[in-house]
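Sanity check

After download, print the first record. It should look like this:
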Amino acid sequence: MRPFELTEPATVEAALASPGTFLAGGTTLVDLMKINVLTPRHVVDINELPLRGIHAGDGLRIGALERMSDIAEHPGVYPVISRALLLSASQQLRNMASIGGNLLQRTRCTYFRDVAMPCNKREPGSGCPAISGANRMHAVLGTSESCVATHASDLAVALVALDAEVRLVSAAGGRTIKLADFYRPPGEAPEVDNDLRPGELITEVLVPRLDWASRSTYVKVRDRQSYEFALCSAAVALDVQDSHIIDARVAVGGVATVPWRLAAVEAALRGAPATLASFEAAASVAADGARPLSGNGFKVPLLKRTVVRALLELTEGSR
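Expected structure tokens:
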């Protein structure tokens, strides 16, 4: 780790006036600093800022410094969010990691994290060896000729499914943006992960009220049961009445460069009976547009099966 200066502002205004890299739980930033993937000269510790609180009512308002473990245990949090959090990392890391930091975490692509290797996300123009190299864990959706790295956050998948927004502030003012619009597929600029502007800070996550999201879940398929990133995951919420689907929200992770909303699957589910046949028919379009690589073609059928599994989990006993 290279030397750096540390400041600890007590107010949001002071933090925004301090140039540098913001540090919350540090579960991603410190790791990347240790291996010199990130080498900030000035780190701004924001843990004393008043950016906490979980408020349930007309939707959810979650302060950016709330820890993942506290959010998962809060009674007003939708099951899909709680489950996505509980399936993330380890208990120790969940006790430290903040919701804002989780949403900003960098990819776990091994080429990105190895400074001896080229990586367009770390060094634009250097190349993407994953395209022709070891790519079993990489994306099949939202990829480009420049990058095929997956987005790492489980929580972000659940929040995208629920149309969540993030509140961003800077010295120039504030703005609110949908999380689905916040993340950027790599295109020709894979070094840009999201729409966070220089000097901006996430202060709050906003989840619209959705009463039927009480019937929701998060299914995560991975190589081992704990402390592992997803090969494929599905965040699903269903409104089921009289054994028919009135509305649906579906997003997936582990298979795309950003949290991936499946609008076509949602459309196929609306009005359909809550049956295995309907679920399989809807999931058949889940991988439309996929571009599998040499080592991850299995993710196409796995994606479809994971969506079906989540739908079955939500409707068990109602069919």
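If your output differs, re-run the checksum step. Summary of this record's structure: The longest helix spans residues 299-315.
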